[in-house]
Amino acid sequence: MSVGFRPMRDGQEDAVAAMVRQLPKDLGLPVAPKLTGDALRKAKGLVHVTVAEDSGLLLGACLWLFTFSTWRGCKGMYVVDLFVMEHARGKKVGERLLQSAGREAAAAGADFIKLEVDETNTGGQRFYIRVGFGKHREDELFILEPDSFKSFIERKWT
Questions:
Q1: Which pTM does this prediction carry?
Q2: If DSSP codes are grouped into helix, strand and coil, which group holds residue 101?
Q3: Which residues contact 83 (CB under 8 A, 6 or more apart)?
Q4: pLDDT, mean of residues 91-119
Q5: Which end of the chain has the least Cβ crowding within 10 Å, N or C?
Q6: DSSP classification of residue 44
């Protein structure tokens, strides 16, 4: 296996979206990501995608974006999703893919990586700890889902 790492090329959005939609199936999660190739095309410039490939076949993808931490006082990288095809797992493809994406972000000024892992994804948690990530239990994730978001921004204040 001769794996290469690079930014996603135009025209690969559908294949990357299909890989991301495979992630919960592999984890046995009862969810279905809504990511499509069209959504990735529309997010160009916001979402960066680094891919792993072997002989032109995509083996994995890391979807990420830039963030900023006031606590750290610097720019960082936020990993949205990291996926490696089942047949390529256990061969350091995920670690090298994350490293390659991190190098892209660092070249543009990022000094840290932040991400979230589903609480049931113990394999993912072990992976991130193994490569050097630390858990920050003091951080809690809060989300305004689409309906709540719409209600919030449309709320009239009296």
A1: 0.90
A2: helix
A3: 19, 20, 22, 23, 60, 61, 62
A4: 95
A5: C
A6: B
